Amino acid sequence: MTTLRIGYGAMRLTGPGHWGDYPDREAGITLLRQVVDAGVTLIDTADVYGPHTNEILIREALHPYPEHLLIATKGGFVRSGPELSTIAALGHRQYLRQSAKLSARRLGVERIGLYYLHSGYARDASFEEQVGTLAELRAEGVIRDIGLSNVTLGQLRAAQEIVEISAVTAHYNVVDRHEQPLLDAAAEAGAVFVPWQPVSLSTPGEPTDTAGPAAIRGVLEPIAARHGATVSQVALAWLLDRSPAVLPIPGTTSLAHVRENLAAQDLVLSPSEISAITGL
């Protein structure tokens, strides 16, 4: 399936702390429909968002899905309360099988287009066993393509020995590039690299911050001004220039921001502007 180079991360369409239902259900449904109408062809979710409420909202808004729309979801995390400390990684074969099949049910599909192992941190099963479970689900037709989230370069290499990996998602943006080797390996293998929090100018674990420190603004703001663009658009354009494999998934609850993000695909930065940002 061909997708645009910028997708939509739906995680924010949940309750506070990503727990429970999105407070304004009708607004969430409207936004998701507008996201697709604006041209987005990839929507990213996970069973732990809510938990479950995000997948259900996507189904209510968009099912039956347009043929061009890819819904990506993830499994491998469990959450027992509103506190983030209640999130844990599980990789047991039966748990992952249940997670994938219940995600398919919630999304209203017989086969999930792209299914990620949400974490490489689980200790109740080896990483190789977890990837093997996803390969098994693929062979059974429960999922079509397999992705990896929050994994190391070594884990990506190990997974590729077991089954084809179609996508890798990781925290990667202008100020956080420690996953560059993962991007390079994904691109080399023909997989899509999906940065999350792509317009944030903060480090992993921090809330999204599109302003960033003064040193970052001092480089990005003049570039944005020259193009009549926003800093977020410049950050996305820089990401898209990094590799043809890059497909960011910015998340927002604003249609204006969705359109702004998509417009970044048409922003062409000069080599000197790219170099200035890369040199930060």
Could you walk me through the main structural features you see in this protein, from its secondary elements to its overall organization?
This is Aldo/keto reductase. The chain has 280 residues and is an alpha/beta fold. The protein is built from ten helices and nine strands. The protein has helices spanning 25-37, 53-62, 93-107, 127-139, 153-160, 180-188, 214-227, 231-242, 255-263, 271-278; strands at residues 8-9, 42-44, 70-75, 77-79, 87-89, 112-117, 143-149, 167-171, 192-196. The strands form two sheets. The protein has a seven-stranded parallel β-sheet. The protein has a two-stranded antiparallel sheet with strand order 4-5. Helix 6 (180-188) links the parallel strand 8 (167-171) and strand 9. The two termini are 35 Å apart.
Proportion of β residues?
5-15%
Strand ordering within the main sheet: 1-2-3-6-7-8-9
Please give the count of helices.
Answer: 10
Low-confidence stretches: none
N-end to C-end Cα span = 35 Å
Q: Determine the fraction of residues in helical runs and give it as a percent range.
A: 25-40%
Shape from CA axes?
globular
